[in-house]
Amino acid sequence: MKRSLVGKTPEELSRIAVQAGLPPFAGKQIARWLYVNRVSEIAQMTNLSKAGREALEKEWEPGWVHPIAKSKSADGTVKYLFPVGGDSSNAVEAVMIPDGERKTLCVSSQAGCKMGCRFCMTGRQGFHGNLDAAAILSQFFKIEEADELTNCVFMGMGEPLDNWEQVKRVLEILTAPWGLGWSPKRITLSTIGVLPRLKEFLDSSRCHLAVSLHNIFPQERAEMMPAQKAWSISEIIRLIKQYDFSGQRRVSFEYTVFEGWNDDFAHADALAQALRGLECRVNLIRFHRIPDFPYESCPPAKMEAFRARLESHGVTATIRASRGEDIDAACGLLAGKHRSESQL
Hints:
Blueprint: E1 3-4, H1 10-19, H2 26-35, H3 50-57, E2 60-61, E3 69-72, E4 78-84, E5 87-99, E6 102-106, E7 110-112, H4 121-124, E8 127-130, H5 133-141, E9 151-154, H6 164-175, E10 187-191, H7 197-204, E11 208-212, H8 218-224, H9 233-240, E12 251-257, H10 265-274, E13 281-286, H11 300-312, E14 316-319, E15 342-343
Parallel strand pairs: 1-2, 6-9, 9-10, 10-11, 11-12, 12-13, 13-14
Antiparallel strand pairs: 3-4, 3-15, 4-5, 5-6, 7-8
Helix pairs in contact: 1-2, 5-6, 10-11
């Protein structure tokens, strides 16, 4: 089986080029063909010698993964299905969310997830493997709206920091001038709080951070989110407070509001107290019903009261609009399922 060039840096591509009898500077040329021209075949890299291209083709290919299906929501949200490892029965999803001039990609980093959050369909399906950098980058480069994307969030299937080595490589390619050339301000990584990889992310990247919080009380959080037992929310917040978020870099906390579980003023007050002194935002999220789960979404009026209570303590809070629920593309609903609406 041939190996993928996509996901490699110019330095790595340079070493590969030399092994194929090409000069070292061919690494930069290959990077441009991959990330700027987005070619699908080595034969298209016409400024490389024919002999060099033929030598490369013996072991390497660009390695893009192409979507096999898509679904479009009534609100304009588009969900793409990508096979994993060439196996169409094992798939991940990426979601393109339009909002005026913005087009945000919600990207997946794993097939399934190890974290086991009870309210998440991805977590319920278990873990089926990490995506490599080529599979993650393909979600950016191989959807129909690739040239129109303005932002991305690592909030799709999987825990990004549980696949940190590949995600770190993707962040470099997305932000490098030889890659996609995006500002880190256009990228948000969402995590349940995997320590110490969270510290490495905060030290090595200027991308925004979103923390999947959902309940500030440790015992209650552990009931829904088993990862709390390994990485407590208090330790996560303590680490985050060591970093400066007063400038262009932002941190937010994701809080799905369940009726009768985490929606009263005691939870709001405790959350505000825990976040005191940290410049941040709390995003309140409506729960999207899933089978065999005991809780319902919090009523809108009560969610608004929760938001107002947080703001009375000086915490900036917003209620996130739900997008793509009719195609199972909203928060917590991604499960890599095949749909028949539009096969690609």
